[in-house]
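User: Sequence recovery, please. Input:
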């Protein structure tokens, strides 16, 4: 009798294991539609690019597209344009965490401009025209100090601070220079010490390859893997591989909508309707979706509700960013995760 019971129990256990295995297979995300989307739009995305999706402690999707044969992969270093601003905001918040950050631009006699203004395009200082190629041009200044001094002494105040949004490079570069003054260290060294090394972003730098001034607003070089480490840190509320890089409060502040009721005087069409975070952008009606609007092509984002991060990392963009492709990519990825989200 006991032998029959044992056999029955063994049979049930085997069936249960098979069902569990099948359930596991069934629940695996299917990214074939993503493959198809990216392949169809390879030329529009600049031919050479990488796409990554990370969730629950592992990389679920890695795909690289190259023209003919080459070495463009998740470790390849390329300009990240305005995606630099998310990193700059995080660097600023390391100073906030330490209570070291002066909240004003007083050094340059514009004490009514705050660091928050600098990270949200609300300084009111006259700005240059912006565009994909503008971000990649050699700086006409030899140092960040020279550039920001020129802002203070030669630029007109186009609007009072905190009264309108005008997207430009001015604010982040002012914030970067303020950090240099506080710390008596260069911006690129601070970024290395406080963000790049803790996040093991070995292929990332802000050193200007053309010998010009460092550019906190759009001068970063990075890799798809490196930037993903940064996104993972944000998803983990400031920690990376068990070590704290930012406080939870700092991450929450970065991800909070800023000046949401202000009129928008200028923003690239790709950002129409988006709300300011600190160095990033928030989807209206969906505070859990944050991204970096980048005129140079690369597009990183995190979805806090579905708890995943993704990036399309572009080597050489051709023309304007393809917002419709990015949004379709996100929709397909979202469909793979069972979650009740906005």
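Assistant: Recovered sequence (342 residues):
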């Amino acid at each position: 009798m006991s032998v029959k019971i044992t056999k029955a129990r063994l049979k049930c256990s085997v069936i249960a294991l098979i069902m569990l295995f099948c359930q596991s297979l069934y629940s695996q995300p299917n990214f074939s539609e993503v493959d198809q989307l990216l392949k169809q739009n390879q030329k529009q995305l600049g031919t050479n690019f990488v796409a990554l999706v990370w969730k629950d402690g592992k990389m679920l999707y890695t795909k690289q597209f190259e023209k003919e044969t080459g070495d463009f992969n998740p470790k390849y270093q390329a300009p990240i344009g305005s995606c630099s601003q998310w990193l700059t905001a995080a660097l600023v918040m390391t100073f906030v965490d330490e209570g070291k950050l002066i909240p004003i631009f007083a050094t340059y006699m514009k004490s009514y401009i705050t660091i928050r203004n600098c990270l949200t395009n609300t300084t009111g200082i006259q700005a240059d025209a912006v565009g994909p190629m503008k971000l990649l041009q050699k700086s006409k200044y030899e140092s960040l100090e020279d550039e920001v001094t020129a802002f203070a002494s030669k630029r007109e105040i186009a609007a009072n601070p905190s009264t309108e949004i005008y997207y430009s490079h001015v604010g982040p570069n002012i914030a970067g220079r303020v950090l240099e003054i506080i710390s008596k260290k260069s911006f690129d060294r601070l970024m290395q010490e406080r963000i790049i090394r803790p996040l093991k972003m070995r292929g990332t730098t802000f050193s200007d390859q053309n010998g010009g001034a460092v550019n906190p607003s759009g001068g970063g070089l990075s890799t798809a893997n490196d930037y993903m480490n940064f996104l993972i840190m944000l998803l983990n509320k400031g920690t990376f591989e068990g070590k704290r890089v930012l406080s939870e409060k700092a991450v929450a502040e970065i991800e909070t909508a800023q000046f949401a009721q202000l009129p928008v005087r200028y923003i690239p069409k790709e950002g129409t309707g988006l709300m300011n975070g600190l160095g990033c952008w928030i989807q209206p009606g969906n505070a859990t979706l944050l991204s970096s609007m980048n005129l140079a092509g690369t597009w990183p984002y995190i979805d806090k509700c579905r708890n995943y991060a993704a990036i399309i990392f572009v080597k050489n963009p051709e023309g304007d960013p393809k917002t419709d492709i990015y949004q379709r990519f996100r929709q397909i990825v979202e469909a793979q995760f069972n979650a009740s989200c906005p």
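Residues 14-26 have pLDDT under 50 and may be disordered.
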